[in-house]
Amino acid sequence: MLMVMDRRLESFASIRAALTLPVGPIQYIVSWPAQTIARLKTVLSTQDDLIQENLKLRSEQLLLHSQLQRLIAIESENNYLKALMKSSHQLKSKTLIAELLAVASEPYVNQVIVDKGTHDGVYVGQPVLDASGVMGQVMQAGLLTSRVILINDPHSGIAVQNARNGMRTIAMGDGYANKIRLMYMPKTADVHVGDLFVTSGLGDQYPEGYPVGTVVSVNNDPTKQFADVHLQPSAHLDSSRQVLLVWYQKHA
After folding, report:
1. Other beta carbons within 10 Å of 5
2. Any residues with CB less than 8 A from the CB of 112 and at least 6 apart, and which?
3. Residue pair 181/230 in contact by the 8 Å Cβ criterion
4. Is the pLDDT of residue 252 over 50?
5. Residue 126 · residue 117 · CB < 8 Å
6. Interatomic CA distance for residues 187 and 224, integer angstroms
7. Beta bridge partners of 213
8. Residue 137 in contact with residue 149, Cβ under 8 Å?
9. Partner residues linked to 185 by β-bridges
10. For residue 126, what are the CA distances in angstroms to 18, 88, 93, 195, 244?
11. CB 147 within 8 A of CB 139
12. Does domain 157-233 correspond to CATH entry 2.40.10.350?
């Protein structure tokens, strides 16, 4: 009867509107779980998207950081090569840049292998420098590679002089301390911490005036005949990757 009255009587519209009031809360209660689940799905989906986006951004950040480190390394290497080329321009002799291939692993042995040999004109006794000072000299020359003995090797010796007062002496490698030691230095010798010793040019081995090392300790032990003087090498013996081969004097 209500359906017929609703269909035929226009005045029944107000009654129908009044009847919907108690039904509204029931509809809200019935629809609330579905709406809550829909909102929860949206929240979870958004959170998952944020997590994935965060992981992607972190991966990109790590990649960019690694690329930045590589660029810094390349820039550092370029700066070193520029300094090495600047050093080569200061020498009037023929020069050639070589790269280290290997480092000797024996205890108290300071030698390296470079990627140049007799095919490139390398000869035994050839001076080897870096951008900061004397590295050593070639002790064995193969066709494609050569072995270089560094100045801090116990079997290495080099004629040096004090840049401050011109005093000449011989410097030998100290494999235990990884430094250079001045030989037969009188206790009364005018040598002080901070003095720079350079190549003297004697012995036809190294160009004159190239930095060898700086005095870091002077010990006048009363039980020893000579003073114990140690130098810190000017060259970066432990970190240089590129070196400079020099054709000096009769080999130029």
Report:
1. 12
2. 100, 101, 102, 103, 104, 147, 148, 150
3. yes
4. no
5. no
6. 9
7. 197, 233
8. yes
9. 227
10. 110, 15, 12, 26, 10
11. yes
12. yes
Block residue for tokens 């300094």: 83
Per-domain residue ranges of the chain: 157-233
The band of 30, judged by pLDDT with boundaries at 50, 70 and 90, is low
Average pLDDT of the chain to the nearest whole number:
79
From CA 121, how far away is CA 112, in angstroms rounded?
A: 18
DSSP 160: E
Q: What token pair was written down for 241? A: 């990757």
- What's the CA gap between 163 and 194, in Å, rounded? 11
Give alpha helix (H) positions in the chain. 2-8, 12-90
* Distant-in-sequence, close-in-space partners of 152: CB < 8 Å, separation ≥ 6: 110, 173, 174, 175, 178, 179, 180, 233, 237
